[in-house]
Amino acid sequence: MKIVIAPDSFKESLTALEVANAIESGFKRVFSDAQYIKVPMADGGEGTVQALIDATNGKIVHTSVKGPLHATVDSFYGIMGDGKTAVIEMAAASGLHLLNEDNKDAKFTCSFGTGQLIIDALEKGISKFIIGLGGSATNDGGAGMLTALGAMLTDRNGDALPPGGAHLHSVSNIDVSALHPKLSKASFQVACDVTNPLCGVTGASAVFGPQKGASKQDIALLDANLLHFGQKLEALTGKNIINFSGAGAAGGMAASLLAICNATLQSGVELVINTLALNEQVKGADVVITGEGRIDSQTVFGKTPIGVAKVATNNNCPVIAIAGSVSADYEIVLQHGIDAVFPILSEPGNLADALANGATNIERTAFNIAQTIKLTN
Question: What tens digit of pLDDT does each residue of 188-217 get?
C-alpha cells in the first residue's frame, strides 16, 4: 500500500512536517509495511518557508533587516535542498505581525527589508526565488524593496525619496542602472492568491489599507500615489502593471516584482504543488491524507487541502482530510475532491490544550482512519 501524506501546518501548534509525522505514526500502527510518502505542504502564506525546506532537506537562514517601520528586526528565509532556490515570506521582513495596533501606519511602512532578504540570498549564489506575499504591513508598491535592490527613486530635484507610500507622488525618476548585478540572472515566482489590481476600488489601498492602519483619507492619498508610481513603472518597462491581475498584492509589492524582476504570479498552493512535484508523488497511491488547522467554507478558496485534492482526483486517488477543527459549513469541501473529513478533538477543552496536544490528537485520529480503511480491505 502506498500512502501519500500532504498536510499544511496546524497554525500555532505544528509545522506541516510535524503534522505529517504524526499522521504517519498513527497509520504505521495499522499498516506497518506500507510505503509512506510525506510531502509537507503550504499555500504560499505563513509556513511556506518551513514546508519547502522540510520537504527538500533545505535550511533556514537567519539575518537582521529593516522592519516595516525601519527598525532592525530579526528575520529569515529558506534555501531549498537544491541549494539554488530561496523561499522568502515577505512578512518575515515586512509583515503586519511586526507591528502593534499603536504603530500601524500604511503611509510610512516600507518593504525595504524584503529587498534585503533577496540581496542576502543573491550574495549566497541563489538564482531562483519563490516569494510569498501574504501578511504585509506595507502599501509602498514595493518601492522600498526596489531601493534595497539598488534602484534609485528620486524626485524632480534629484533627491532620494523617503520610505513609505505617502511619498510616492513625488517619484520623478526610477533609475535601475545600479541594481544588484546578479538580479538580472535571477528568476522570481510569486505566490499570489489575490486578483486585485494596483489601484482603484478593488486596489491595494482600498481593500487592504484599512487593516494596515489607513484611514479613508489615507486610502485616497495612497491610491493616488500608487497610480502615479505604477505609471512610472509602466513608462520605464513598457509593461501593463497597474491593471494586471494581482498587482495589488502585498500593498502593491507585486507590481514592482512584475515590473523590475520579471516575476510570474501564481496561486500559492499551485506553486508549492508544482515545486514539490506532488503529482509525481501521488501517482499510484492508494490514499492521500491532507489537512490543516481548520476546515471550513473558506478552505475551497485556494487552501492546501483543496489543492492536494485536485492532484489526487486527477490520479483517481481518494482523499481524506484531518482538521484541528471544522465549521458548520465544512461539508462544502466534499464537493471539491475531498472524500471525508476527520476533526482531531475527542472531548471538549480549551484552545491552549488543543494546541499543546496537537500531535497526540492527530496520531490518534490517523490510527482510527487507518483502522477504518483496514475494514474495507
Answer: 999 988 899 999 999 999 999 999 999 999
What pLDDT is stored for residue 350 in this prediction? 67
Residue ending a domain, choose from 268, 285, 314: 268
Q: Are residues 156 and 253 in the same domain?
A: yes
| Mean of the per-residue pLDDT values of the chain | 94
Mean pLDDT for 22-28 is: 98
pLDDT digit string, tens, across residues 246-282: 999 999 999 999 999 999 999 999 999 999 999 999 9
How big is the chain, counted in residues? 377
Give the domain range for residue 176: 48-268
pTM above 0.85, yes or no: yes
Q: Nearest Cα to 4, choosing from 271, 311, 330?
A: 311
Neighbour-count burial of 100, counting CB atoms closer than 10 A to its CB (0-12 exposed, 13-18 middle, 19+ buried): exposed
Say yes or no: 237 and 334 in one domain.
Answer: no
β-bridge pairing 72-79 and 85-89: antiparallel
Residue 121, phi-psi category: left (phi > 0), alpha (psi -120 to 50), beta (remainder): alpha
List of E strands, the chain: 2-5, 35-38, 59-66, 72-79, 85-89, 128-132, 152-154, 173-175, 187-191, 264-266, 287-295, 319-326, 340-343
Q: Residue written as cell 488543543?
A: 354
12-43 b/e (C-beta count within 10 Å ≥ 16 → b): ebbbbbbbbbbbbbbbbebbeebebbbbbbbb
Confidence band for 348, pLDDT divided at 50, 70 and 90: confident
DSSP conformation class of 10: B
Contacts of 140 (CB under 8 A, 6+ apart): 109, 110, 111, 163, 164, 165, 168, 251, 252, 253
Note the pLDDT of residue 356.
73
Boundary-marking domain end, from 215, 233, 268: 268
Burial letters 57-66, b for 16+ CB under 10 A, else e:
ebeebebebb
Q: Looking at the structure, do residues 227 and 331 belong to the same domain, yes or no? A: no
